[in-house]
């Protein structure tokens, strides 16, 4: 079993660290929030007094932080833990950040003889708790193989997308497509309802037709078409609009940098930003359906 330093124990990182403890790894955890630390301590993780303290002697250093500025500050900036990490260790950043920052971090760590992979996840808080996350890795073949020891205890699907940064690119491509499918599914369902159709019947028809897609089949945005999805539970739980807006901002940045044409991604971002600004940031992203509903007088 490995010695793992885990930094960032929020909604995602907390349950991920707990799954490593359950798998028998020796986990040293650190977060700026005392509350987050108390929760993983109760599940058997050792609590470190600082990030530098957590990484001492670790085989794997895993971070799960809100955004690029936190990740860069942790390793290279204010907290500057890179110099405290053992040369044998593999650094795994699971946060969703822009690919350029991931590459910059990988290069800076390589200068200090430290191995690095970016490993953003898909699967949300439910997947983090259940240990069924999908990891999308950017890094060398050897480091991807090495990472399986710990990633396999937190997730079910492990993909190797390419070199450092490729994990982040693949993740935002997926989330951009997901947002487009969610918006398209929502407007089609609402147009059917406006024309007198039952959304359950319309969903069944489209599921057997060429409009079939993941959002329609497993995450239907229209309330009461499917049980146990956020739309049938007041759009609570799931993947927040705030996080979708963050990911679509990263997708837009990437498309500007690569000169790619992403008209539907840009439109989906604008729709989600408007939805967020209308006060829906904490709701699940399928709540975009309500933007198409007729106001009931
Ligand atoms: P969160 O805000 O719940 O947790 C982040 C944690 O990091 C907090 O506990 C915070 O105190 C801690 N932190 C911040 N700066 C720190 C520092 N310098 N040192 C130590 N701890 C620090 O966020 P989350 O929902 O767990 O998301 C984490 C990452 O995962 C984000 O990049 C997000 O985009 C990505 N993600 C989230 C989801 C989701 O459904 N929540 C799904 C996929 C990916």
UniProtKB/TrEMBL annotation:
The keyword NAD applies. It comes from the Bacteria. One of its GO terms (molecular function) is NADP binding. SUPFAM superfamilies: 6-phosphogluconate dehydrogenase C-terminal domain-like, NAD(P)-binding Rossmann-fold domains. Pathway: Amino-acid degradation; L-valine degradation. Keywords: Branched-chain amino acid catabolism, NAD, Oxidoreductase. Its EC number is 1.1.1.31. Residues 165-289 form the 3-hydroxyisobutyrate dehydrogenase-like NAD-binding domain. The active site is at residue 171. It is an enzyme of class 1 (oxidoreductase). Pfam families: NAD_binding_11, NAD_binding_2. Residues 3-162 form the 6-phosphogluconate dehydrogenase NADP-binding domain. Belongs to the HIBADH-related family. This is 3-hydroxyisobutyrate dehydrogenase. It comes from Alishewanella agri BL06.
């Amino acid at each position: 079993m490995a010695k793992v330093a885990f930094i960032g124990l929020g909604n995602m990182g907390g349950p991920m660290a707990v799954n490593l403890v359950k798998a028998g790894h020796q986990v040293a955890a650190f977060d700026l929030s005392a509350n987050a630390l108390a929760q993983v301590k109760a599940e058997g993780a050792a609590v470190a007094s600082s990030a530098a303290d957590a990484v001492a002697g670790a085989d794997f250093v895993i971070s799960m932080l809100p955004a690029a500025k936190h990740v860069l500050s942790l390793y290279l900036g204010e907290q500057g833990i890179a110099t405290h990490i053992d040369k044998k260790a593999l650094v795994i950043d699971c946060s969703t950040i822009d690919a350029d920052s991931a590459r910059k971090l990988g290069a800076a760590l390589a200068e200090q003889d430290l191995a690095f992979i970016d490993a953003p996840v898909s699967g949300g808080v439910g997947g983090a708790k259940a240990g069924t996350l999908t990891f999308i890795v950017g890094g060398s073949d050897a480091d991807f193989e090495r990472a399986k020891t710990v990633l396999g205890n937190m997730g079910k699907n492990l993909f190797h997308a390419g070199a450092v940064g490729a994990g982040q690119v693949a993740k935002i491509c997926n989330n951009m497509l997901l947002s487009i499918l969610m918006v398209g599914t929502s407007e089609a369902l609402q147009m059917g309802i406006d024309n007198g159709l039952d959304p359950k019947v319309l969903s069944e028809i489209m599921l057997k037709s060429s409009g079939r897609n993941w959002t329609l089949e497993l995450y239907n945005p229209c309330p009461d078409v499917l049980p146990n999805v956020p739309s049938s539970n007041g759009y609570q739980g799931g993947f927040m609009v705030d996080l979708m807006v963050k990911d679509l901002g990263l997708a837009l940045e990437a498309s500007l940098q690569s000169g790619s044409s992403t008209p539907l991604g840009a439109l989906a971002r604008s729709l989600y930003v408007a939805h967020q600004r209308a006060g829906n940031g904490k709701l699940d992203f399928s709540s975009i359906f309500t933007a198409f509903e007729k106001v009931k007088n």
